[in-house]
Give the backbone structure.
Amino acid sequence: MMKKLLIALAITSFVMGCKKEKKVAAITKDASAIIEEETGASLPFYWEGANVYFLLTDRFNKGTLKRDVTLNRTDSTAVLRGFEGGDIKGITQKIEDGYFTDLGINAIWFTPIVEQVHGSTNEGTGNTYAYHGYWAKDWTAVDPNFGTKKDLGQLVKKAHAKGIRVLLDVVLNHTGPVTDLDPVWPEEWVRTGPKCEFTTYENTTACTLVANLPDILTESDEPVELPDALLAKWKEEGRLSQELDELNLFFERTGYPRAPRFYIIKWLTDYIHEFGVDGFRVDTVKHVNENAWAELKKEADYAFGTWKKKHPDQVLDDNEFYMVGEVYNYGISTGRQFNFGDKKVDFFKYGFKSLINFDLKTDALKDYETVFKKYNYLLNTKMEGKSVLNYLTSHDDGNPFDRERKKPYIAANMLLLTPGASQVYYGDETLRPLTVEGAEGDAHLRSYMNWEDLDSIPSVKKVHEHWQKLGRFRAKHPSVGVGKHKRLSKKPYVFSRLFVNGDYKDKVAIALDLPKGKKSLRVKGFFGEGAQLFDTYSQTKVVVKNGYVVLENDFDTALLELVE
């Protein structure tokens, strides 16, 4: 017994010694994070196949249970158009609890957290505050309703400790609306008309999205002074000198004119310098001249590189700074071009690794093989080297797939198994309602996360478990999102994914719509005779015989990987 113990200790010592030689992030980790690292969190990560969780900061989880009303936001609002109390600390709590890890999430995107306009507006859908984060007042501050910069720093550190990347949602196109408490920015900074018509390049970029949403003059290179209201605010907060000194250093280093977009680019990239966020989800991309996005990416790359040099012990990998853009109504079917009507623009040439794909919600009405084959072809031809972020539901798409939540298993399969990156919208995995009594417009899509349902309703728990199984398999196997797709069998439906990058190789087989009981799955030509496989869905080991594996259970899904 003693001899066996000594041998075991020696082997453990040798393995740990080898692991120390590997270039891994030396981040302080809790026990669960260490376990993740030992079981595969150090797998190569590819943004092209990321599993991104998107949530509204105000609607996900309350980390600070007792929060006073901030900034005198005391007006009554229409249904779901005020602040509900979700905050940065609440997201961090769920990171620490392992909620995202259990879903196989390896990147989190949450709505903007910069300071919002203080007043409320009523633009036809009832009185509204800027709970959603897209109405900036001061890009240099975090809105107190969401938390503090210290909270944001903690979130990034906790996420990185779990191997999860953080995407900040950023807005360069517009300020918040004008209210009694929020005067319009100077005319050298913004235009207040005309409203966008969306029929030409000009009337999509040089216009306001809606009435009373001042549009930043992002095309202008004319130097402008900072607004008096912003200077007075900084002075009152005791940081005027610091902000002005930092701006001077930025413009001296870059040589940019002091035009509106460059101020905002500086303020946005400060969050990279300070916290090491991994990427930006960029709002309203098609409403800004494309050169501005290349400039944002250039400064983001500089900030990310600087942060990595200053924090070598916190670097997750060698990936460059990631930018995914919201070009509203862009779809993968068109390839890389977006058509304005009179002009086509390839936004991928201006800093974007990926664009949000508006096609999947309609493609998902088709059969699995049709969708998987289409995306496999496009991503490996027209889109090679770039990617799309697929989604089925979101915060501002009034026509989501399965609005009534009647097809949650199909939704999970389509979203998590379609080639490309996937965007899980909060509550996709818990049947959070997308229709709310008394709500109007996009408020329907933005209800508070239904944690109580997950805790108490068996059908919700069952759906959640399915999303977890698929998500964890996807996170463990980059081939699911990035690999080449091939159908192995029509009925039962079995397909493979194979990804090779240098010395790294990952291969899996997946089966859907399986019958209950005993089933034979064809894997011939993909897994060799006698290969030992593990079905992670049913937790069953199988062996390839005559090109088939046999499972016997009541599950309609199989997720097959090689036994190492």
